[in-house]
Amino acid sequence: MATRSKDLRQRVLQAAEAVLDRDGSVGPLELLQQMRLLEPVHVQGWRKGNKYYTPLEPSIQCGPKKLNDTYRYFHDWIEERGLQPLEASYVRSGLKGNEELQVTQDADPEREAFFRTHYAPAGLSQRKAKQLEKKLSKAPDLVVYQLVSKSATCSECEAELWKGELLYMEKGQPLCLSCADMDHLEFLPSGDATLTRRARKHSPLSAIVVRFARARKRYERQGILVTHDAIAQAEADCLNDADQRAARREQDVQRRRREDHKLVEEMTKAILAEYPNCPATEARGIAEHTAQRGSGRVGRSAAGRELDPNALDLAVGAWIRHNHTKYDTLLMQGTDRRMARRMVRDQIGEVLSKWSGA
Ligand SMILES: [Zn+2]
Predict the structure, then answer these.
(1) How many A from CA of 183 to the centre of ligand 1?
(2) What is the pLDDT of residues 203-224, one digit of tens each?
(3) Taking the complete model, does pTM exceed 0.90, yes or no?
(4) In the chain, what are the domain boundaries?
(5) Distance of CA 207 from the midpoint of ligand 1 (Å)
(6) 150 CB contacts (<8 Å, ≥6 apart)?
(7) Is the peptide bond before 140 cis (omega within 30 degrees of 0)?
(8) I need a surface site. Which of 84, 178, 299, 310 has the fewest CB within 10 A?
(9) C-alpha 156 – ligand 1 centre gap (Å)
């Protein structure tokens, strides 16, 4: 029994530290999810107002004794760490404004407050603490689904909804946009991030439109729904500072070019330091190739950009394989990749030792 309670304490501390590290704060619901005593999908359902998960408390998969111990260890840890409480709230933006979400079955104010309270490192500036509280209390975005194949029926007016049409889920039930009071909104497709951000800011009501991509098995964002005025205002904003934004983009391009140039210079030097007999043009070729932006090559990895010798060796090895051996020809002839690598291994070794002067 003693070891079991020690194990639980250990689990609580590990989970609490992990959440604090990840989110910058931790509350009971986040702790329980991290410990897998509460399923994140249940919490997501609850946050969307799905009645099956409301109130949330019965979804906690844990006996009363263990749960009590968990909270006790959690609060001991909070005291030891000297964390400061933050008052968050769990709200959902619904059609009639924001709605407080209930955790406990009895809606006891004290226990509700217990679940709402998050803990963050002490000594946060007042501004930082306010920011964190605001972030914790933010209602999740409203989401509207674009029907992919099956038709659906509005749970209020019973209108049929077809493929391509939009529906809103209210407490687990589909609603057409008229019944959801969103039919005055206009669709703004994704693509222009600045326009999207500004339109959302200007729109008193907005929703994200997603569609299920079967191939990737996930919902993908298609655009947003916002008021007509919000789009017009956002477009005017964008027109007003288009020149400024273009200039800033051009500056960014120039800066990245300078950074890339510097990286290639440094990498060439580092390669030549390790392989003094490597022809300078080849050293530069290797550096340019591996450091190419967007290539995903080793030169763009963190290790590559820090000129880590192992990363440089990989880049040099790959270069030799493609430029000083028959490797590419072997692949073209249909030789198995692993076999081809084995066949050219000695040749690569020879070039490497020649270049390193060993
Ligand atoms: Zn309807």
Answers:
(1) 10
(2) 988 999 999 998 888 899 999 9
(3) no
(4) 2-137, 143-240, 256-356
(5) 17
(6) 163
(7) no
(8) 310
(9) 5
